[in-house]
Design brief:
The chain is α+β, with helices and mostly antiparallel strands. The chain has five helices and four strands.
Length: 157
């Protein structure tokens, strides 16, 4: 298939009948359905007519023109799937925001927790086993206080 044949097919596909279908007349009222149509395509080839391409279309109902007694009204189509999906997205976001708000409400800021801890230590309600500094080590464990040789090694020499 060469590019000219493909473009002819695209031209045939993209006509007004893809957007507006045949009018329907009943009880003195004429209804003309309309749709949103989108398409895209691509192709390529070389000088020896080797190549290919493709084209795709997507059509969704948009609504209908209603003609009655000489007046024309537009009646939009309602896409229930889009409404349901949109409401689900809004609900998920609302739940995430609510969860974050509830978590932050139950927590005191770091400065308030530190102040409570200090007040509890001073009053004796909270006692640390080794005092407030958890890095205290008994004498003999500092690097400058360690013996140079292990006692077993001193006996052997």
């Amino acid at each position: 298939m060469n590019v000219d044949e493909m473009l002819t097919g695209v031209r045939d596909a993209m006509q007004a009948r893809m957007v507006f279908s045949e009018p329907v007349e009943r009880d003195g009222m004429t209804v003309i359905p309309a749709a949103n149509v989108r398409g895209g395509g691509g192709g390529g080839g070389d000088n020896a007519n080797n190549g290919g391409g493709g084209f795709g279309l997507v059509a969704r109902p948009a609504g209908a023109y209603v003609m009655h007694n000489g007046a024309v009204d537009w009646q939009p189509a309602v896409d229930v799937n889009r409404i349901v999906l949109g409401s689900q997205i809004v609900a998920v976001i609302a739940l995430l925001v609510l969860r974050t708000w509830l978590k932050s409400r139950g927590r005191a800021p770091d400065s308030a927790r530190a102040a409570w801890r200090e007040a509890a230590l001073r009053s004796g309600r909270l006692k640390w086993l080794r005092g407030t500094d958890s890095n205290r080590r008994p004498s003999g464990y500092e690097p400058d206080e360690l013996p140079l040789l292990h006692p077993a090694m001193e006996r052997a020499s």
